[in-house]
Amino acid sequence: MEAYFASLSFLKLLKNMPGGVAQGLIWGLMALGIYISFRLLDVADLTVDGSFTTGGACAAMLILAGWPAWAALLVALVVGCAAGLVTGLLHTKLGIPAILSGILTQYALYSINLHIMGMSANKALNPDKNHLLLTSRYIPQAILIGAAIVFVVIALMYWYFGTEQGSALRATGNNPALARALGISIDNMKVLGLALSNGIVALAGGLMAQYQGFADINMGRGAIVIGLAAVIIGEVIGRALLGKHLNFFGALSFVAIGGVLYTLVMVIVLWLKLDSNDLKLFTAIIVAIFLAVPYFRDKAKTSFHKSARREVPHA
Amino acid sequence: MLDIQHLYKTFNPGTINEKKALIDLSLHLNPCDFVTVIGGNGAGKSTLLNAVAGVWPVDQGRILLDGKNVTPLPEHKRAVYIGRVFQDPILGTAPNMQIEENLALALRRGQHRGLRWGVTKKEREEYRERLKILGLGLEDRMTVKVGLLSGGQRQALTLLMASLKKPKLLLLDEHTAALDPVTAAKVLELSDRIIAENGLTALMITHNMTDAIRHGNRLIMMDEGRIILDIEGEEKRKLTKRDLMERFAAVAGYTLENDQTLLTKD
């Protein structure tokens, strides 16, 4: 035990923190995309595991082909939108349940992603040869650029979901019966929302490929869980800190912060020398706990068990 | 205004649960008609309203609104003509959105929704004035989420939403059934006022005979997918509950023991 604690260097933890922030911002960006489907549309969209990789693959291949990084990211975003569009159409036009539609698209994307990467499972980017927007080699710069992109996306989302169309999209997720009665095509809104969501996820994938210096066929595995973790951690902490004063801009900001916090927790867990193979198990447990928080908060107020223990009045 | 011609609708055709919900139903509403619809469970009242709203396609027949054939239009495309208030207060509003956001959604009923701001400053003033009329103090809580309002407040808000952009037809589907009697009376009075002030044409379903008699200028009674009574004008004004029960017995061929068997009492 003593030997274990002696082997932990606090300095090393501090050294790893900035990298965690940079990576966390990218996960936070992805979580903003997931927020659109999960919170605003009320759909658990599993496409993201595939579209995150698609974004990384597109960005990596275009950068390797000599495209400027920003243009490659733009293409990644558009292709991500297309992936979301497919899920949306499977759901609305073919009547396949949303969760299954996402799984189908994600499954198909595995092959498509391999095709994009020229049938290779891994494509390396070299910060010396390729011009990258951000890389883990220059972490302060990566944090700045990551934060700037996150800020721009939050601002755009804040604007869009305040417009007539964005409001209609929120109404669709909130009360589809009302949306229809007010002349909103909920099918169109779902397709649109899923496309936007996956566009942002793919953008994050494109950034992650640059940051880590490679695109990998498995880089998106579990992205939905990480995204949900970020959304939920952000919400719980945002509500705890700001309570009623948490407006939409704040809510979005806390989703991104949730991504950073999640990654920092992972940095700490790795620093504690937990086997990295157990990370997914650990993440799943964190997400399950945070998903259960609102449920238990309600339960704390009222439960069969409690009502049974209370004394009968006037008895 | 509304012209329904020979409407048929059968649910679960060809199965053991087959239900002929509307049978050769025709109905014509003049502009500014306020028609109350009464009948027992399964008489086809809600089916009639849903057919008009376009919740599903009808089997046969035609529905014309202000001369336009809306039969082939799905629900969201008919919305431009129709304002609706549901029985369940939860259905009529978006609970996670603010009062003013809900009103703004309703103001754009049936319109193209683009990238302009969802709620403008100018319309906010209008909402404030309209909300004042409700007398519920909602005008000072416009940024409150609707989920925090009571059922009665939500139903009043839904009424306002349904009439904000003047509909050609207002459909009220037992919109007071889920409220306590005092609140129900208030919401009914508000419905009267909104219909009268805006000169709306309205169809209102109710389970309550007294309400059906007291409100509107015309009353129709449904039984087994058909309209069996249609009373309007002076005759409707003089109508009593006893008349209604007797006439029901004469037409339907069976008696209502009392209004509690098929219709809830007032």
Written account of the structure:
The complex is a heterodimer of chains A (315) and B (266). With 315 residues, chain A is mainly α. Helix content of chain A is 75%, strand content 2%. Chain A has helices spanning 2-7, 10-40, 48-64, 69-92, 98-116, 139-160, 164-174, 176-181, 186-212, 223-242, 248-271, 279-301, 304-309, and strands spanning 122-124, 214-216. Chain A has a two-stranded antiparallel sheet with strand order 1-2. Chain A is globular, with a radius of gyration of 21 Å. Chain B is an alpha/beta fold. In chain B, helix 3 runs parallel beside helix 5 (151-164). The longest helix of chain B has 18 residues, at 181-198. The chains are: A mainly alpha (315), B alpha/beta (266).
Concise synopsis of the structure shown:
The complex is a heterodimer of chains A (about 325) and B (about 270). Chain A is mostly helical and about 325 residues long.
pLDDT averaged over residues of chain B:
92
Assembly type: heterodimer
Uncertain stretches of 5 or more adjacent residues of chain A: none
Strand content of chain A: under 5%
What's the total helix number of chain B? 10
Largest sheet: number of strands, sense, barrel closure of chain A: 2 strands, antiparallel
H/E element string of chain B?
Answer: EEEHEEHEHHHEHEHEEHHH
Record field, number of beta strands of chain A? 2
Per the principal axes of the C-alpha atoms, what is the gross shape of chain A? Answer: globular
Helix share of residues of chain A? over 70%
State the order of secondary-structure elements of chain A, H for helix, E for strand.
HHHHHEHHHHEHHHH
Number of helices of chain A: 13
Structural class of chain B: alpha/beta
N- and C-termini, Cα separation of chain A: 57 Å
Which term fits the overall shape of chain B?
globular
Which structural class best describes the helix and strand composition of chain A?
mainly alpha
Please provide the count of β strands of chain B: 10
Largest pleated sheet of chain B = 6 strands, mixed
The termini of chain B sit apart by 31 Å
Poorly predicted segments of chain B: none
